[in-house]
Specification:
By secondary structure, this protein is an alpha/beta fold. It has helices at residues 28-36, 49-53, 57-61, 81-92, 108-111, 123-136, 156-165, 191-197, 211-220, 238-248, 257-275, 277-284, 288-292, 298-305, 311-330; strands at 5-8, 11-14, 16-19, 42-48, 72-77, 98-103, 141-148, 171-177, 202-205, 225-228. The longest helix is centred in the last third of the chain and has 20 residues, at 311-330. The structure holds flavin mononucleotide.
Length: 339
């Protein structure tokens, strides 16, 4: 496989895989787990520039970075250029390796105001925003965006050129237009024209769920790295699987019931340390479906787990379920319907 170098500031990665920024998902507990399974580069959830300036505590907390998760970028979003520059300065104080500008969020109340993917409708404004953020900080600045506002208005090549001219050091391209939201076939064919137009690293994102998807996109495009988002939710080991496939031509990791339930619990316990038991347990409810997907009787177990409010009780229920599955597997029953 061709060597894909991703260089920004002090960060130099080869054939790298990054964990995408995801609001309410990529908190420090999930990032740490993905890192342990092989994610090379991490991003915080997006951080609202205006919230930071208002000194909103919940917003500022999203920038918390643990030493073991480096290299990591803080992603900021907003529509006002001065606010974005000020937010970047505040983010820099947390000493991430880079600052990322969100130019891809499709959520109506953000994009219609001109932030996130809304920046794709006014490329000169987007360029000025990147310039001002670059000017405001010492750290490298990157941009995560989409191929265009609408499928009939694809302007990623022009956007990438402007972003590079403004001083950005890398660009992540979610290969869907804003109008496609998170569904529809990503248009990976836009990666090569972007690569030809700029000399900064270009990272591909969108629709990379299985290891095979990453292998294909690396074979078919000249992207300098791949970014995984939903493919890692409820299955952070996907990073190890991808790396195995790329290096050895096959996936040897067995994501069996033991690994899946161990990881689910590990994720919850780390979240409890960061957020406290009550909040972590409530937020973890959305992950059971992913971690337990396809396992025998998982819907029954999930129904019990989502009404539990005590860590010890949840741990007992999961361990008990894990033991049952292991015993059934030993007795020759199918316990994982995904196989
Ligand atoms: C729950 C969720 C939250 C997201 N939050 C962010 C965000 O904070 N910043 C961002 O740039 N993109 C965000 N995204 C978009 C992803 O980073 C990614 O671009 C998109 O999901 C496409 O990748 P995928 O097809 O691999 O999921 C979010 C996506 C999801 C599903």
């Amino acid at each position: 496989m061709k060597e894909r170098i991703f260089d920004i500031g002090t960060v130099r990665l080869k054939n790298h895989l990054s964990l995408a920024p995801m609001e309410d998902v990529t908190d420090p507990s999930f990032r740490a787990i993905c890192k342990e399974f092989g994610a090379d580069l991490l991003y915080t959830e997006f951080v609202n520039a205006e919230g930071l300036i208002r000194k909103d505590e919940r917003t500022a907390k999203k920038m918390a970075i643990a030493p073991e998760e480096r290299p990591v970028g803080v992603q900021i979003y907003g529509e006002r250029i001065e606010a974005m520059a000020e937010a970047a300065r505040m983010a820099e104080e947390r000493e991430p390796e880079f600052i990322d500008i969100n130019a891809g969020c499709w959520v109506k109340k953000i994009a219609r105001r001109g932030a996130g993917a809304g920046l794709l409708r006014d490329l000169p404004y987007m360029q000025r925003m990147v310039e001002e953020v670059v000017r405001a900080v010492q750290l490298p600045v990157t941009v995560k965006t989409r191929i265009g506002w609408d499928r009939s208005e694809i302007n990623i090549v022009e956007a990438a050129k402007r972003v590079e001219e403004a001083g950005a050091r890398a660009i992540v391209v979610h290969c869907r237009a804003r109008s496609m939201g998170h569904s529809g076939e990503p248009l990976y064919e836009w990666i090569d024209p972007v690569k030809e137009a700029v000399s900064i690293p270009v990272v591909v994102n969108g629709g990379l769920f299985e290891p095979e998807d990453v292998r294909r996109v690396f074979e078919e495009t000249s992207a300098d790295g791949a970014m995984i988002a939903r493919g890692a939710i409820g299955r952070p080991w996907v990073f190890r699987e991808i790396k195995q496939l790329l290096a050895e031509g096959r996936v040897s990791l067995d994501a069996d019931e033991t690994l899946r339930i161990d990881t689910c619990l590990d994720h919850l316990k780390r979240a409890v340390e960061v957020k406290g038991e009550r909040r972590a347990i409530l937020e973890h409810r959305k992950y059971y479906a992913g971690y337990l997907k396809g396992l025998r009787d998982s819907s029954l177990v999930r129904r019990e787990l989502v009404v539990m409010n005590d860590l010890a009780e949840i741990e007992d229920a999961l361990r008990d379920y894990q033991r049952r599955l292991v015993n059934l597997a030993i007795a020759g029953y199918v316990v994982d319907h995904r196989r």
